[in-house]
TrEMBL record:
Principal place of residence: membrane
Subcellular location: Membrane
Bilayer-crossing regions: 65-87, 107-130, 156-175, 187-207
Name of the protein in its database record: EXS domain-containing protein
Amino acid sequence: MFGGPVVPANSPHLRKSGSRAVVYDFDEYEGEGGADESLLHSGEVNDSRGGTTPMSATAMMPSPILLWRFKVLLFLIWGCICCKIGWDSVMRMSADKRDLFIYEAFLYFNPLLLATLMVWLWGTNLWFFAQGGVNYSKIFDLDQNHLTHTEIWKCAMWMTVIVPTSMTAYIYLYSRGEVAYAASQPVLLYAAIVMVLIFPFDIFYFSSRYFFLRTLWRIVFPLQAISFADFFLADILTSMVKVFSDLERSVCRMVHRQVATIAWLEADSICGSHSVAIPLVLVLPYVFRLNQCLRQYKDTGEKTALLNALKYSTAVPVIFLSALKYHVLPEQWTNIYRPLWLLSSVVNSSYSFYWDVTRDWDLSGFTRIFKFSKPHMFSYMLYGRRWVYVWVIASNLILRCTWTYKLSAHLRHNYLTVFTIAALEIFRRFQWIFFRVENEWNKMNNKSHMQVSMSEMSNEEEKLLHSMNHNV
């Protein structure tokens, strides 16, 4: 997600995907016309020699705007074809089986759709950082070949094409009685994603994939000092617990060969909605983040790390109290456990909202992210506008409360509502990223300024002592 580890420019681990090496510089946007100027200069030299040269291959290429429009047209045509095939296939099914099958198909593919949404929004975050002059590669300690927002969007585009295509093929094959071929679609898709992530050769953005997997490993096993990238990605994972819970149920059904069947719909089955594995998977990202806070306290001794650990621990009662609905008597749930669940939900939402505003963010001013280095419509709309403060704070509070709804296992059967809330939580995290990264960037700048000031003070003291010794 972020980029790659710090490696030298001649390292064999640099990706060979055809993209240029990225060297981040604050002045890179002032020099965007360098290539055009060199081409112009080359043309002037040729003209001065009095000769004519044949039209270059670059000049014969279509304009980027034309290519972009052509891609958008192909994308729309593809979307219409998938919708048409999917709708016709669903209408071929009997009414009693239709809803159950749509729920099953949705289960296998919706976690990948949510992950695709997160990748699109992450690319948007990087675009804003680049426009605002925020050196995110320094914040996350990325190498010079980290993925740019354009490359992130390219990955998201392929995910947007592949996942719905596989879902359409799944519905089409099942509606025509090809159950075995239909069952292979999600299995092949999941296997392909895993293979791309762990592919050991120097293609498909190898350094970035290695950095991502290494960061995941450090999150699961915090055996060394916690970096900003470590707890930043762990925070994002807490917003994607819906993805992990559905992945667990999907993989469970694949292992037990229940794909494209309705046998798994029994709630008490090993892969059913009452499985104890679901709350365990839901709580894992919060446990990882809690362990990071404890490790941070051990390394630094800061008491705020313990308070942050307490915040993540408040999500545990929300998850497990809700799961008790399937394992206690209805009267016990109504009279005892549901009031406790509501209380724990209020505590978790309130604490998380307080921490977002007062600790993770610094809303004293939008110093860089929304103040672009070049005039832009978004810069005018967002920078220094009071409505941005109001929107961010209010939406964060509302979405914090609705996210508690998703953590509730006894409400997971409302899959469309839960999917919408999960998508909104990803959007909340998208907003959170802006202010969290800006806050870290400001801290790094203040720290560097303090170091420079201390260095200047020490130099002045040395000069003063040298002058006194000389006078003596």
